[in-house]
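DUF3995 domain-containing protein
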Amino acid sequence: MLLSIVLSCILLGLGLIHFNWVVGGTFGLEEAIPTKENGDLVMNPGKVDSAIVGLGLTVFGLFYLIRAEILEINLSSGLMNSVGWIIPVIFLLRAMGEFKYVGFFKKVKSTPFGKWDTKLFSPLCLFMGILGILIQLF
């Protein structure tokens, strides 16, 4: 139960950061978008993109509150089991990255995003993936 609460808090917090960007906030925004070594953006996410990611993170956070039996929503055991494996796989894949700009195996490491991805983003994704697996197993 404790692991589910910890993971839920992390996910809900990340969801709030993304919603902050939707309403015009800039906290961490520059560091959160991958760039090429010359400073060009690798992608240019808009408010809709941030809202979709924020919603997904929030739903994932709520899932772990259901898992911890803090929220009482009756979902089938099959759905709980499937989603319980899908979420950690998503974060483990994110930690691994796409081998150029994102993840532990990225080649471009000297950009602001690259530095933060090495220090925080990828380790956090790995941590969340491992927590999700532990929750599933125990």
